[in-house]
């Protein structure tokens, strides 16, 4: 099978590596605005050839779009225009409603499968790509009824080859749940980094004292704006809703401390501890 | 050298394991309110003998107090009362000013070294103890001038044996910095867990979709109130100060989203990205 990757970064690169390793794919074409990324991906054997959009699509059975969600919305209709009815295109974006909406009335809509692998790191670029990244994680397929059965089948094969398990969901539900599970974590982490950078003027002290706890909470704050501004933009309403709730939860801690109500503080923490039972099932 | 550990949990247990492995310590006495903890620590070879406070102190060269910070404040004067001038006691608490204050005028103050290893996990109990825990992390000694030189020397030897590097700081500075670097991370993580538990009623969806990003941000929310309520209590003013700043940082994200000022949102994220340069020095 021949694969084209539009955006040879962390996610696109990791998928290509794994599918080559599993011998599902025997040729990978890379399409990217950045020549540096393409050259790096070639050198790392992530892709076998550079191509422009037209040639890349022509020479592939499956096309994976792995670029920021706003750019995905723009390029997806063009990709469908260039495709035949025997090809499949999937994306990997962290928001789904806007992307699905952008091709709702496209004549070739059924060749597109809206996909989101529940994995990522704060790093980017082909050099960050790791074949084993997705192992054991969930892969969400949205609005399956809008895709052709053979296209869904193709994506399911890819998801299995990535050692992921498939979850089906509609795009609106996906965007709501990811606001809770993923997008708010990033805002929290960014705001925590900004708090520490604002309050702690002694950078060396941050570096010297930073424990594994701090590093893990603030890890996501290293994630790049090129990827995350579009996600927050596309999922604005859900993210704002969860962010408001988060601020009011923080105010409960503030109030408990101010009033020295340490019993209530203990209750807030005990409630938070319930996440253990859910995450460690 | 003979060691007594008051509180054979995660931290006390991990220290004992490492010091035995390094052969700095050849006998460990365990003192704990929980018989279960003591039996577990015996079975895991963390301690060699159970003891009550009086016998444990009598039979040791060094005593390490590894219990919640409010309990440390209470027990420390009693421990000093029972000690001779050739023995050394150290604590491992995450707040230092209150503990140092509690023995300020004690006749045997100089036998105490106020210590804080910058490591911990969300787990507790002897079974969570790991000898390699502290490797490469900072160990903070506070108010060194209030301790006898030989007591400081002894603690430095222990810190080196734990493969940590020593930082000296006064207790007030320590409490301020840990509010930034550690305590606020815990509140953020607790509040994030409570946000998700409040908004996301579909527990199975949390479990299925939770990515590594969410898990790492919310990891600290598993930490127990028995340990953390006393820390927040003892460091109330600093924690409140940082918490207020954190809430106002979150409100900047909220405002940027509400006003659809995505340029500003990008700037906030770019600023947060600076933490990469500080943490990855």
CATH architecture of the largest domain in chain A: 3-Layer(aba) Sandwich
CATH superfamily of the largest domain in chain A: NAD(P)-binding Rossmann-like Domain
Distance between the termini of chain A: 37 Å
Segments of chain A where pLDDT lies below 50 for 5+ residues? none
Topology as H/E string of chain A?
EHEHEHEHEHEEHEHHHHHH
Strand order of the largest sheet of chain A: 3-2-1-4-5-6-7-8
Helix content of chain A: 40-55%
Bin the strand percentage of chain A: 5-15%
CATH class of the largest domain in chain A reads Alpha Beta
Structural class of chain A: alpha/beta
**Main sheet characteristics of chain A:** 8 strands, mixed
Overall description:
- With 281 residues, the first copy, chain A, is α/β, with parallel strands linked by helices.
- The first copy, chain A, has 2 domains: 2-169, Rossmann fold (3-Layer(aba) Sandwich), CATH 3.40.50; 174-279, 6-phosphogluconate dehydrogenase C-terminal like domain (6-phosphogluconate dehydrogenase C-terminal fold).
- In chain A, 55% of the residues lie in helices and 13% in strands.
- Chain A is built from 12 helices and 8 strands.
- Chain A has helices at residues 10-21, 35-43, 53-58, 69-82, 97-102, 149-161, 171-199, 203-209, 212-218, 225-234, 236-258, 262-279, and strands at residues 2-6, 27-31, 49-50, 62-65, 88-91, 112-117, 138-142, 165-169.
- Chain A has an 8-stranded mixed β-sheet with strand order 3-2-1-4-5-6-7-8, sandwiched between helices.
- In chain A, helix 5 links the parallel strand 5 and strand 6.
- In chain A, helix 7 crosses helix 11 (236-258) and helix 11 (236-258) packs antiparallel against helix 12.
- The mean pLDDT of chain A is 93.
